[in-house]
Amino acid sequence: MKVAMFYGPGDVRLEERDIPEIEADEVLVRIRAALTCGTDIKTYRRGHALVPPPSPFGHEYAGDVVAVGERVERVTEGMRIVAANSAPCGHCFYCKRGRESLCENLFFVWGAFAEYIVVPGRIVQKNLLEVPEHVTYEEAALTEPLACVIHGVEASNIQMGDTVVINGAGPIGLFFTALVKQKGARVIQTDLVEERLSVAEQLGADHIINAQEGEEATIHNVKALTEGRGADIAIEAVGYPKIWETTIKMTRKGGTATLFGGCEKNTTITVDTTSLHYNEITMKGVFHHTPHYIRTALNLLSWGSLDTQVFITEKMPLSRIDETLKKVMAQKGVKIALIP
Ligand SMILES: [Zn+2]
Ligand SMILES: [Zn+2]
Prior knowledge:
The protein is built from 13 helices and 16 strands. The chain has 340 residues and is α/β, with parallel strands linked by helices. It folds into 2 domains: 2-142 and 306-339, Medium-chain alcohol dehydrogenases, catalytic domain (Quinone Oxidoreductase, Chain A, domain 1); 152-285, 3-Layer(aba) Sandwich (Rossmann fold). β13 (251-259), α10 (273-278) and β14 form a beta-alpha-beta unit. The site of one zinc ion has 8 residues, from α2.
């Protein structure tokens, strides 16, 4: 089988490997579609602590079950499935407290940019779902990133009639836009790229702000749209410390700043203590997903709650993975589906 291997920043090679054997609790999946994601692009650009090279990579996929371990229940050969890249253990301190995204025994599966993938036992049990007939493989592969964003939306506690500013109109920011609109809130979308802002508009963003003018002007523009207060909820969907700070500064008194984008390791932010204290701002970190959000995500996709065509802008054969990653890195399109 063909597998894309990450050897270091800018170095991805398509290699020929044996199709792996499975253990009794595992499932072998023939991948039909895998999607590019910000995490993969970060890995490709600068490496990733969780992807030590050489390593297979890519983690958003859907496909067909081609082999089932003898101890696996409810999964059958030929089933169209989507599986998450991880699953919580269910028995650690955090799992027991219902904070499964903080599970102490979380492990991540990479290797969606390949023809086959082995789904480990724990994921088979907790985060492998059958894909309804009318949902395509590409659409189903949106389950994992969408689940993360649903987590972010729910953690932000958005009320009808709120004004929500979303900083960043990459795939994650755009998912936020689509979902926050469904929560009955007004969306202000900021980004540096005009093309992405117009996609946000297409998804229902009420106001768009090109942040090219700089931080001061962007904050000023957000305040101008909220009678000088700032947004009820401000969301960071980029993963840069500077934008985390900007996001906090855009939040109104008593509001919430949702810090969603993962920044590079060992980076820090500066927060004005006076404003944090007297303005009673809540700063919220949000990470990853839970089995509940994975199910919610597939349901939303199945019910047609999202215009999936906006998110999957192109299909490419797996053999052109290098070109695909470069294209996404240059911010051309939203997500690209790699078809092995
Ligand atoms: Zn992802
Ligand atoms: Zn756990």
